[in-house]
Write a structure and sequence with these properties.
483 residues, Lipocalin, eight-stranded antiparallel beta sheet, 10 helices, 17 strands, 26% strand, elongated
């Protein structure tokens, strides 16, 4: 079958052999010479049609190809082609194609605050790595999206529902990338499942977009999240509840180190809101400040920021610790020797403080850690280091393939370094411990930068890795200088 454009070409008269393309175009444009225009079509029509066919297919090629002849006149002669006057048509004008725009219904339905019910990444058998997203809020308002895990100073989204799998594209602006700020784009798909919202995040900068809402054991590390509406009053403020549980006056009754317990009566710890006050037994100057809680780790974390202290130079410092509240007994273990946050309440050579509510008679549990001698202590420390190395190696392997938690890897590495420092006998051994730690943290920092670019982490996490690496390098330089 001969297409319409070819039929048009065959109906036209013989070529004007002696005229150049410029002359033909000029003649066609200025005097409406049909023979000149026919010659242009015969000479250049097949070429134009072939290009259009290769690019956009036959049906559109016919329309675009004819329109390109007018452009050809302009290119050759330098003049703007003027359309010939047409007789008035009694036929109604063709309906214009309406451009596709995001469905207002979807935009309205998406707007507001959602809570993450579950989060899972392709290729991860369990929900590790993104399970910490559970119960976090994600809000959509206009073209902005708010979610603590997203990087950048400005976070935008755009709906494009005109596909089999509806599309939503996220744009994170001013994302910190080493020494510059960049814009990161993350493609995604979405669908409403009853009163819930299912989003699958793709790979950064539109390299790969998900095509299915089905979780896969293998393939690209797409992240699936299922959200539900955050109904006011339904989401419990766990931090606020924990503060209320801790509020009051606590009296110290004992301390415990390496399984040996001794009395430490009458020091008071007063907690109210986010404020704390420590009043020693001697009625000396009190220490006061603010505290924050992190309920995700186990044991739970507490950070005490000193706002007033008997030692003015410590004002503004933050002490990192862990705690547990069990059967009206508050056990608190702080980083008093600047060795890093304790990993366990019964960690070797750490002081665990036990408090009970003022005015109560609470029976303390048995010792947190059995009494041990020096040889047995060293055996346990060596065994612990071996276990920590296994954990650190596993974390490193997970990060290489884009899985696992960077912050968990940092904590494990720092805990391993602290344990190795306890066993180090010489300055050279202690220097080697910190050198190994700095090297491991440098690798984690590179992983964090990649994850940040992929939208799999946030600025705070990437900065936390850098701070940990710098801290290790500073301690290393201090040891080298003191050698």
């Amino acid at each position: 079958m001969i297409d319409p454009l070819s039929r048009t070409v065959m109906r036209l008269g013989p070529d004007v052999a002696d005229a150049s393309a410029g002359e033909l175009a000029s003649c066609s444009a200025k005097s409406r010479d049909e023979q000149a225009f026919a010659a242009l079509v015969r000479r250049f029509g097949p070429m134009v049609l072939g290009v259009c066919r290769r690019k956009i297919g036959l049906s559109l090629a016919v329309v675009v190809g004819i329109g390109t002849i007018g452009f050809l006149q302009t290119a050759v002669s330098g003049t703007d082609p003027q359309p010939a006057k047409k007789e008035a048509s009694t036929e109604p004008p063709p309906a214009k194609e309406t451009p596709r725009t995001p469905a207002k219904a979807d935009a309205e339905r998406l707007r507001g605050t959602w809570m993450i019910e579950s989060a899972r990444r392709n290729g991860v058998a369990s929900k590790e790595g993104v399970a910490s997203w559970n119960d976090e809020e994600m809000s959509f308002d206009g073209e902005s999206v708010k979610f603590s895990r997203f990087p950048g100073r400005k976070k935008l989204y755009k709906l494009d529902p005109g596909w089999d799998e509806k599309r939503i594209d996220f744009e994170f602006r001013e994302v910190l990338d080493v020494n510059q700020r960049i814009t990161v784009n993350v493609p995604a798909i979405y669908r409403f499942e009853g009163d819930k919202l299912h989003i699958v995040f793709g790979v950064v900068n539109f390299d790969e977009r998900p095509e299915s809402f089905e979780w896969l054991e293998k393939g690209a590390p797409f992240t699936h999240i299922l959200l539900k509406r955050a109904i006011p009053g339904e989401a419990k403020d766990l931090i606020a509840e924990e503060r209320r549980a801790l509020e009051g006056t606590w009296v110290s009754v004992a301390i415990e180190v390496n399984g040996e317990r001794r009395e430490m009566p009458d020091t008071k710890l007063i907690l109210k809101g986010n404020r704390f006050t420590i009043r020693p037994k001697t009625q000396g100057l009190a220490t006061a400040g603010e505290f924050t809680l992190d309920l995700q780790p186990s044991p739970r974390h507490i950070n005490l920021t000193l706002l007033s202290s008997p030692t003015p130079e410590s004002k503004g410092n933050t002490i990192h610790g862990i705690y547990s509240l069990n059967r009206r007994i508050l056990t608190l273990c702080l980083d008093e020797q600047n060795k890093g946050r304790p990993a366990n309440l019964n960690e070797a050579n750490r002081v665990a403080m036990l408090f009970v509510p003022e005015g109560t008679d609470v029976k303390l549990p048995s010792t947190l850690l059995p009494a041990i001698g020096p040889n047995r202590l060293r055996e346990l420390q060596t065994e612990r280091i071996k276990a920590l190395r296994t954990i650190c190696d596993a974390n490193a392997e997970q990060l290489v393939v884009g899985k696992g938690s960077v912050l968990e890897a940092i904590r494990a590495d720092e805990e391993l370094a602290a344990a190795e420092q306890e066993l180090a006998k010489t300055q050279a051994e202690r220097i080697q411990v910190l050198a190994d730690l700095a090297q491991r943290l440098k690798k984690h920092e590179m992983s964090a930068v990649v994850r940040l670019a992929n939208g799999a982490t946030n600025n705070a996490e990437e900065t936390r890795v850098r701070v940990a690496r710098l801290k290790a390098e500073i301690e290393l330089e201090k040891l080298k200088a003191a050698k």
